[in-house]
Every structure is written in C-alpha cells, then in structure tokens.
Amino acid sequence: MKEEKDIYILGIESSCDETSCSIVKNGTEEIATVILSQIDVHKNFGGVVPEIASRHHVKNITMVIEECLEKAGMTLEDIDSIAVTEGPGLIGSLLVGMEAAKTLSFVTGKPLIPVHHIAGHIYANNLESRMTFPLLCLVVSGGHTDLIYMEKDYSFQKIGGTLDDAIGECYDKVARVVGINYPGGPMIDKLAKEGRHTYQLPTPLNDDSYNFSFSGLKSAVINLAHNLEQRGEKINKEDLATSFQETIVDTVTKKTIHAMKEYKVDHLIIAGGVSANKKLRDTLTEECEKIGKTVSFPAMKYCTDNATMIAAAAYYAKKRGDIASLSISSKSTLLLK
Ligand code: KG4
Ligand code: ZN
C-alpha cells in the first residue's frame, strides 16, 4: 500500500492581540509555534486598542514567521500550504496576517488556505486527542458563545448562540467592575475559587432554545457594585466572582447537556479562550460523566489565540477544497460554515 505523504501547513493568526505562526503536521501534530502576545501593551487601556494592535502586528509578523521556521528547523520549501485566519476579528490586525500569508503563497506558489477563527479554536481539540463524530462543540471566547453540531470533519451547524454579549466579554466587564485589568477572565476564575456564592444574581435566559443572553447578568453585577459603592459598603471580590461564575457556568452547562441529549452526540468539545476556565471544565466533566458522555478540552496552551489551531484546522479546510486566490481579503465579521 502506498504511504500517504506527510503534509506540513504553516499557519498565521493575527485576529486580535497575538501575533502567531505555527507549523503543524497532518492537522494534528505541532512542530513549532511562536506566539507574541501584546497583553502588556493593551492592559493599561482596559482592552485591546485596534490601531495599536495592528501596528504591533506589522512590526512583529516577519520576525514571528522567521522564528517559527527556525524553531522547526525547516524552510518554506518544506511547507505544503500557507494558512491564515480570514476572520472574524479586528480588521486592521487580520489584514496584517492576511497580507503576510498572501505574500508567502505568492512567492512560493503554495496554496493559500483561509480559516475561520472559530474553526481554529475548535480544531485545537484535535491536537490533544481525536475528535469523534458526530459531536457537539461549545464555543466560549471573547467574541463568541455558540453551540455547534458537527456531523463530520469541517461541517459546522450552529444550533444556538448569544443574543448579546459573549461569555468572555462578560467575564472581562465583570472583572473591570472590581478593578481587574484586561483580560479579566483568568483572574475572576482564580478569585472565584476563594469565594462563596452569596450575591443573588439573575439567571440568564433559561428557555428551551440553545441561545444565550448574558447582558442582564452583566448589568446586574455592575448595578450591584455601584449600589454597594454608593452605600459606602465594600464589595467582596471573591464572593462576587464566585456568584457570577457559578451563575454563568450553570446556564451554559444546562443548555449544553440538553443539546447533547437532543442531538444524540456522545462527544462534547469545548473551544475558545474561556475553555481554560476551571469551573467550566469541572462542571461539564461532572455532568457529562453523569450521562455517560465524553468531554474534551484543548490543552491550556491552545485555549487562547494561537496559530497552531489555525494550521490544524487548515488541514481539514483544504480537504474540503477551501483554497483561496490572491484576491481574498480579511473579514471583520464572518459566518462559520
Ligand atoms: O478565544 P480568545 O483568546 O479570544 C477570542 O477569540 O475572543 O478568548 C479570550 C477571552 C477573554 O475574554 C478572556 O478573559 C477569556 O477568554 N478567558 C477566560 C479564562 N481564560 C481566558 N475567561 C474565564 N476564565 C478563564 N480561565
Ligand atoms: Zn480566539
């Protein structure tokens, strides 16, 4: 039998505040990755400043690509295809990665594979253990809270999503109320381990749909903090973090488990930055165990933005025939399909 040739894809991700390049073999094996985070640059502004982010991507992208090839001990000749995040994200940031990828594709003559940022987050799961179909994917990031049914590789059917704020956005805003810098999600997660559920907060949208709504919960936390402040009372940060986290994780878990039953899937995967959350991991693991289903998460290093996930997803995007011409441009909003 003829052995299949190994496929090496070089991926580029620059949709927000991380400039990243990675080389992945056959969609599942990371060869080398470089991630340059701009968190320190943006944290004093309380969030990512798009113009500053683009400038940093421009400054760093070539170095990041060069360093990644060096780390892998490879040259562009060893690479089969160039993959890049097409969208969604900050347009100025996306364009830097896109132009770099187009240039590499142009000079090498290798195919250019556009990848949806969320497809990347989803395929970060495949780097750990194989995804088994059909499966349900819970996407929880700074910009998304979606439930996606996947019948097979690179087939995405959205069955629900947030009607307003994304879960990560909500974590970051709640963190800001208690004086924590961007991105506040990881710190809220940490504080919540030390607190108790003492503050009564409204339950987010609790209907039969697979949609989410977190803006009411977010406003309730902001109002609570302001009211306490006006009365001269001190807010207990740990207790607020626990109360908020338990409320939000409970809602997300209930809807996810319900969808798994209705769609008759045995495998649940979690994707996006908030998949690093300890409480979410523990609760989903417990609930899946109760109904005899499997849940898997990306490794912590693949939870937040990185190019490894883009190069991993691109292997399957290419199999589906997703090859772009050099006239392609980035998209700040883009549906996953
Ligand atoms: O996926 P990601 O890196 O960027 C987007 O594509 O949006 O996600 C970033 C989000 C931020 O809102 C950050 O606060 C949140 O993920 N996050 C967390 C945790 N780690 C990162 N939220 C809650 N708990 C965590 N441990
Ligand atoms: Zn992301």
Provide the helix percentage. 40-55%
Bound ligand species: 5'-O-[(R)-(carboxyoxy)(hydroxy)phosphoryl]adenosine, zinc ion
Number of strands: 10
Order of helices and strands: EEEHHEHEHEEEHHHHEHEH
Strand order of the largest sheet: 3-2-1-4-5
Molecular shape: globular
Separation of the first and last Cα atoms: 35 Å
Structural class: alpha/beta
What does the largest sheet look like? 5 strands, mixed
Quaternary form = single chain
Number of helical stretches of at least 4 residues: 10
Low-confidence stretches: none
Rg result: 20 Å
Strand content is 15-25%
Mean pLDDT across the residues is: 96
Q: What does the model show?
A:
This protein is α/β, with parallel strands linked by helices. The chain is 41% helix and 18% strand. The chain is built from ten helices and ten strands. It has a five-stranded mixed beta sheet, sandwiched between helices. A five-stranded mixed beta sheet has the order 8-7-6-9-10, sandwiched between helices. Strand 7 (145-150) and strand 8 (157-161) form a beta hairpin. Helix 5 runs antiparallel to helix 8 (237-262), helix 6 crosses helix 8 and helix 8 runs parallel beside helix 9 (278-290). The radius of gyration is 20 Å and the shape is globular. The model has no long low-confidence stretch (mean pLDDT 96). Residues 117, 121, 141, 272-273, 305 line the site of zinc ion (ZN).
